[in-house]
Specification:
The protein contains 2 helices and 8 strands; from the N terminus they run ααββββββββ. By secondary structure, the protein is α+β, with helices and mostly antiparallel strands. The strands form 2 sheets. A 4-stranded antiparallel sheet has the order 3-2-1-5, covered by helices on one side. The chain has a single domain, classed as minor pseudopilin epsh fold (3-Layer(bab) Sandwich).
Length: 160
C-alpha cells in the first residue's frame, strides 16, 4: 500500500501541464509582441547603416581608383546605386518601402526629378548632401561633407 501511494505522487496532473503550457504561450505572445514593436525601428537603423556604409565605400573607391564615383538615390523606386557613372561595376541596393527617404544634394548632379546624386571625387571630397530616412516619428540622417567627403550618421532630421 505504501508503494502505491508513492506511485500516485509521481508526474504531473493534466491540469498542472495545461497551466504550464498556458503560461508559456502567454509569455511567448508577449515576447513576440515586444519584438514586433522593435522591428520597424530596427529596419530604419539597418537601412540607414547600410546606405551610409555604401557611401563610405563609394568614397573609398574614388580614392583608391583615382576616378569619380557616384552614389545615386532613386527615391521613387526605393533603390540606390553606387559606383562609376554608367558602369556595369556599380553596386545596387534597396530599402523597405515603409521607410521614407528625402535628400538634399547639388542640383548640378541631379539626373532626374526623383533622384539625388552625391559625387565622390578622386581626392576624397564630394558634392556633399544630406539624406534623411524616416519611419513614422523616427528619423536618421546621413550627412556627407563636401570638403572632406566624410559620411556621418546621426539621429533626427537636423536643422534645415
Amino acid at each position: 500500500m505504501h508503494r502505491l501511494a508513492l506511485l500516485r505522487h509521481r508526474g504531473f496532473t493534466l491540469l498542472e501541464v495545461l497551466v504550464v503550457v498556458a503560461l508559456i504561450a502567454t509569455a511567448s505572445a508577449l515576447l513576440l509582441g515586444a519584438m514586433a514593436g522593435a522591428l520597424p525601428g530596427q529596419q530604419l537603423r539597418d537601412a540607414t547603416g547600410r546606405m551610409a556604409a555604401e557611401m563610405r565605400a563609394t568614397r573609398a573607391r574614388a580614392l583608391a581608383t583615382g576616378s569619380d564615383q557616384l552614389f545615386e538615390i532613386d527615391i521613387a523606386a526605393h533603390r540606390w546605386q553606387a559606383g562609376p557613372a554608367k558602369s556595369a561595376l556599380a553596386r545596387n541596393g534597396a530599402w523597405p518601402e515603409a521607410i521614407d527617404v528625402s535628400a538634399t544634394t547639388a542640383r548640378e548632379e541631379q539626373l532626374r526629378a526623383e533622384t539625388a546624386v552625391i559625387r565622390f571625387f578622386a581626392d576624397g571630397s564630394s558634392t556633399g548632401g544630406r539624406v534623411v530616412l524616416r519611419r513614422g516619428d523616427a528619423a536618421w540622417r546621413i550627412d556627407v561633407a563636401w570638403l572632406t567627403g566624410t559620411v556621418r550618421v546621426e539621429r533626427g532630421e537636423g536643422e534645415r
